[in-house]
Amino acid sequence: MNSATASLKLGIVGAGPAGLALALLAAKRLPQADITLFDARPLDKDVSGDPRALAMALGSVQMLQRLNAWPADRAQAITEVLVSQAPPTLQWRGLPAELRLRAADLGTDMLGAVLHYGSLVAAMQQVWLAAERQSPQRLHSRFGAPVRAIKPIEAGQRVEIDAQIVEAFDLAVVAEGGVFAEQSRKALSHDYRQTAWVGRVGLADGTAGLAVERFTRDGPIALLPLPGPDLNAPRLRPAALVWCVPNGDDPVAGLDNDQRMAVLNARLPAAAGRVAWLSPLKQFALGLNAERSLVDGRLLRIGNAAQTLHPVAGQGLNLGLRDAYALVQALRQADGGQSMERTLRQVEWSRGPDRWSMIATTDFLARSFTWRWPGLAALRGLGLAGLAAAPPLQRLLAKQMMFGRR
């Protein structure tokens, strides 16, 4: 480590997956840095049962494997992705309006994986606490300490975190974001006036390890394969459901579970399998909420604290993990005379292409489902069919899904 970062004092706000990943990366790759992890959640609160599903890109899985923080026995590999449109009315050169990406075709075991939020956070937290016990002089946890304020001090040379006790740091990173409806509005904000209905399904037949993205006139429906079995439907293949619909004409709200299953089976492709069980669904408002810059003086935002995206691409957390990796790499590689401000500018520039391409892509797709232009569905189908006929473009798309834009 160089002299500029040898005495680094780093404060991380948020002990979710992004914050824990940053803490673990910094602890391993910045061996002299003093690191404090803050979270409002008490340490004795059990998070392992949180059932929210997380879609992890292959690059994220590999990062956590290197940190010995990947709970492989509680994750389901994604071995194939099917993107299609309902109804599949268009064909081009004999190819249907669908795109299939297979891990086997790309020479890898998986494209990514799915697991429950609680399983991931519990595993990562366990590794962090073990590291803290080994290096208590430089690794610190402040669970049960909600951060009330973060402000610059000493003419911008340090930053102060107020969490019951006021502490000064060389760099503060905010890694807790929450969901769109609970956030204060950032510089770039747009309410899509769409709702995501989220829950679990049990599938009869279909393919293990298959993730499905189905474009409908109302919005996308996504199925993500879950580790099983589900105790509510032990003989069925479990999957997480994200069903996006417009607020003004919500086709889901007034239906009972049997009717919802019937609609899903009518709209999903046969390859997904038949929905034979459906959990109660929860609803979340969808929108874009993004900062123009990750950096504000000695404060950096990552993950949902920097950008909250539509779930159509399932890349929100993966962006946050890549943010964390880029920051630690920049701190590690900074030369002895380099200022913190210059290092943070390098992080901003290095993350720009990946971050802004994902913001633009998800924003375009989300808005497109509110358009009722003649021929729009045909154009979307033509795009899928064209990708299906172009293996080099498929490989490029798969690489970006797995590792982000580099």
**Low-confidence runs:** none
Question: How far is it from the N-terminal to the C-terminal residue, by CA?
Answer: 25 Å
Strand element count: 23
Report the principal-axis shape: globular
The CATH C-level name of the domain at 3-49 and 118-185 and 288-367 is: Alpha Beta
Cα-atom radius of gyration: 22 Å
Mean pLDDT level: 88
* Main sheet properties: 9 strands, mixed
How much helical structure, as a percent, in the residues? 25-40%
Structural class of the secondary structure composition?
alpha+beta
The CATH architecture category of the domain at 3-49 and 118-185 and 288-367 equals 3-Layer(bba) Sandwich
Could you explain the architecture of this structure?
With 406 residues, the chain is of the alpha+beta class. It has a domain at 3-49 and 118-185 and 288-367: 3-Layer(bba) Sandwich (FAD/NAD(P)-binding domain), CATH 3.50.50.60. Helices cover 32% and strands 31% of the residues. The chain has nine helices and 23 strands. Strands 5, 8, 15, 16, 17, 18, 19, 20 and 23 form a nine-stranded mixed beta sheet that branches. The chain has a six-stranded mixed beta sheet with strand order 10-2-1-14-22-21, with helices on one face. The protein has a three-stranded antiparallel beta sheet with strand order 3-9-4. Helix 2 packs parallel to helix 4 (117-134), helix 2 (17-29) runs parallel beside helix 6 (316-333) and helix 6 (316-333) runs antiparallel to helix 7. The longest helix has 29 residues, at 340-368. The mean pLDDT is 88.
